[in-house]
Fold this sequence. Notes:
With 397 residues, the chain is of the alpha/beta class. It is built from 16 helices and 13 strands. The chain starts with a helix and ends with a helix.
Amino acid sequence: xxTLKNLxxxxxxxxxxxxxxxxxxxxxxxxxxxxxxxxxKFLFEYFFDHQEWTIVWVGNKSTKxxxxxxxxxxxxxxxxxxxxxxxxxxAKTWVFSHSPNDISIVALWGNALLIDTCHGVALxxxxxxxxxxxxxxxxxxxFWRHIFSNKIYLAxxxxxxxxxxxxxxxxxxxxxxxxxxxxxxxxIIHEKANIRLIKALRKKFAMLFNLPLDKKWIVYAPTFRxxxxxxxxxxxxxxxxxxxxxxxLTKNNAIIIEKLHPGSITDAPAIQCDNIFAxxxxxxxxxxxxxxxxxxxxxxxxxxxxxxxxYLQSKPVIHxxxxxxxxxxxxxxxxxxxxDIRFGLIxxxxxxxxxxLSNIDTARNNCGKMAPQLIExxxxxACNQYLNFISHMLISD
Length: 397
């Protein structure tokens, strides 16, 4: 099946070279068309004010409901529709968060400028550096990787992450990487003092998931795990631990909002249990998480990049590292010891987590010695850097 897909993609890649591409057209996509979110979303909206560019968001039908009112230079096209294929074939620039598959699973990108915005400041290992990486490449896979060789420009929030990522995907990305930071964190940096927006977002999420507005919102956002589908859940605590947690949350006038990784969110409806709110279903799949990060008061995570927006807002961050040894040695792994790359305080077990929740402000502005290195390019200017880079590349082409 993989061999057949590669052969079909080679044909579409040749087709992609035959079309005349509009240097002023950019297609955007994220999460294989499943949501209007991530770095491409914020860059797409940045281009609203640049009418000299034609911009198109390509996504699945379900994402259309989350697209805002678009200006004259912007439009939406359904992924793999005739219109979506047309835009993919005629746009000179593709912008995505994972791979060109965000815009099309077939290789329509021949002769286009490909830009991978990535989707977070990674504490984790990626690609072939992961302990759980077991993928074997066939001869045709290796040929396809050669076709792809050095084709994609990769934007990175730090030198450390850039070097690790390029090393983990040998021969895939252009070198050097683009030191641009994240447009999602541009959003956080620019809006963290925007009280009106924060109140509006809290009201939106309160309506979507029946959240109380008069409580402190502590988000629990665990990362994706490759070797198990089971993440820790506060909803599955035994009664004695559940009562202890409820007492702490009640005393602090707080709730916990469980928000899973996009790859783990189910279709099940949202659930409320005492002070725990588990958000899921279609609305959770389509939400832009950085809007939730802006409106929440603190975060419990493990090894996820979701901690960075909270750190940049000087909000409390707790790394709940309940499976640290397993995650580091058998699952995804971390680029360094968690104590060095933390953006808050570490709770290795439930008892210590409860202790930190009882005095959560101690987890504010408290990071490891290597943490600043991971966000060295996050200066709030990523969108402008993308615009200048694309303009320069198209002028010199």
